[in-house]
């Protein structure tokens, strides 16, 4: 039971897991890239990104690129650390 | 039952990490084709050099730019090499485009641009270095330098595409280093590196990823 407790509740969803996976290996990713990579709808991605932002696991930067709004997502140090712990917990659970 | 879910999670994480950093549509078959062009080019090169040896001509950079075409083996070899390179790049582009289409991926993505940039930077530094070797008439080191820098470019680019490219790079760089101890046999090492190695690793990539 204690092992399962180590799993981070914030990552307990396919889309949140996906967002973090992309962001820990890339400096940043914008909304459109994430959408295409994860194959999700706008609303779905936005709400899950919001949840991760609330935990301070990711940072959001909004800007304009040639007058078009652009949303950039960046993993924070805390987010990277927590995600690493989550993966380690997953691996332990699998190897049993 | 739950273990399966965790395993799926890990698989998903791994696949997304790869998909978001690596350009996986690089065609293995294009490596094989590039190798075949290089082998044909190598055979042409061999005959050009043999003919030059009979005529007893020696080459320097100034000879290269002033001698007429039919008595200018260096220029002939350069043209053969340029044709090989052009054909190889063209083939790579179209085969990769076809593979990307099959995978429903775009050709020009952040990943592929990163791949090209990371390949081109060491390669162009190597090209300028090779020109400097020509400038000082260190002709014997031209082939080794090209192999070494091409190898380094592949090793550098490998982290952004299929991992096999790293071993292609290592093989070419090592061949280049060995070549420095056998000056004058550049064409053979060249043909081995750009020809054989590309065919071998291209085939590995083809069977591993293209199918």
Which keywords apply here?
heterodimer, A: 96 residues, alpha+beta, Arc Repressor Mutant, subunit A, three-stranded antiparallel sheet, 3 strands, 58% helix, 19% strand, elongated, B: 211 residues, mainly alpha
Polypeptide structure, described:
- The complex is a heterodimer of chains A (96) and B (211).
- Chain A is of the alpha+beta class.
- In chain A, 58% of the residues lie in helices and 19% in strands.
- In chain A, strands 1-3-2 form a three-stranded antiparallel beta sheet.
- The termini of chain A are close together.
- The mean pLDDT of chain A is 89.
- Chain B has one domain (26-210).
- Chain B contains eight helices and no strands.
- Chain B has helices at residues 2-21, 28-55, 61-66, 73-102, 110-135, 142-158, 164-179, 186-210.
- The radius of gyration of chain B is 20 Å and the shape is elongated.
- The mean pLDDT of chain B is 89.
- The A-B interface holds A 14, 17-18, 21-22, 24-26, 29, 33, 37-38, 87, 90-91, 93-94, 96 and B 2-3, 6-7, 9-10, 12-13, 16-17, 19-21, 110.
Mean pLDDT score of chain A: 89
- Tell me the helix content of chain A: 55-70%
CA gyration radius of chain A, whole angstroms:
14 Å
CATH superfamily of chain A: Winged helix-like DNA-binding domain superfamily/Winged helix DNA-binding domain
Low-pLDDT regions of chain B:
none
**Order of strands in the sheet with most strands of chain A:** 1-3-2
Q: How many β strands of chain B by DSSP? A: 0
Biggest sheet of chain A, in brief?
3 strands, antiparallel
CATH architecture heading of chain A: Orthogonal Bundle
Strand content of chain A: 15-25%
| Oligomeric state as shown | heterodimer
The number of domains of chain A: 1
* Shape descriptor of chain B: elongated
Proportion of residues in helical segments of chain B? over 70%
Let me know the number of strands of chain A: 3
How many separate helices of chain A? 5
List SSEs of chain A in N-to-C order: HHEHHEEH
């Amino acid at each position: 039971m204690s092992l399962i407790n180590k799993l981070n509740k914030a990552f307990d969803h396919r889309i949140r897991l996906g967002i973090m996976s992309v962001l820990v290996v890339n400096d940043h990713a914008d909304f459109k890239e994430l959408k295409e990579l994860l194959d999700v709808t706008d609303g779905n991605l936005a709400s899950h990104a919001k949840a991760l932002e609330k935990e301070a696991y990711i940072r959001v930067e909004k800007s304009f690129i040639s007058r078009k709004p652009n949303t950039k997502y960046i993993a924070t140090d805390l987010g990277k650390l927590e995600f690493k712990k989550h993966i380690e917990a997953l691996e332990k659970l699998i190897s049993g | 039952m739950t273990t399966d879910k965790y395993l799926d999670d890990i698989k998903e994480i791994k696949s997304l990490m790869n998909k978001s950093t690596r350009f996986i549509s690089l065609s293995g078959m294009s490596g094989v084709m590039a190798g075949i062009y290089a082998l044909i080019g190598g055979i042409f090169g061999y005959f050009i050099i043999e003919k030059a040896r009979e005529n007893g001509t020696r080459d320097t950079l100034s000879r290269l730019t002033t001698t007429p075409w039919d008595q200018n083996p260096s220029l002939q070899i350069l043209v053969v090499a340029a044709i090989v390179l052009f054909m190889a790049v063209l083939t790579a582009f179209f085969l990769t485009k076809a593979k990307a289409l099959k995978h429903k991926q775009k050709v020009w993505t952040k990943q592929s641009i990163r791949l090209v940039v990371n390949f081109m930077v060491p390669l162009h530094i190597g090209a300028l270095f090779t020109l400097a070797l020509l400038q000082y008439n260190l002709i014997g080191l031209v082939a080794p330098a090209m192999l070494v820098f091409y190898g380094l470019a592949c090793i550098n680019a490998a982290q952004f595409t299929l991992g096999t490219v790293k071993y292609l790079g290592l093989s070419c760089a090592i061949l280049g280093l060995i070549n420095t101890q056998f000056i004058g046999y550049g064409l053979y090492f060249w043909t081995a590196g750009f020809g054989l190695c590309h065919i071998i690793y291209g085939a590995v990539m083809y069977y591993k990823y293209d199918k």
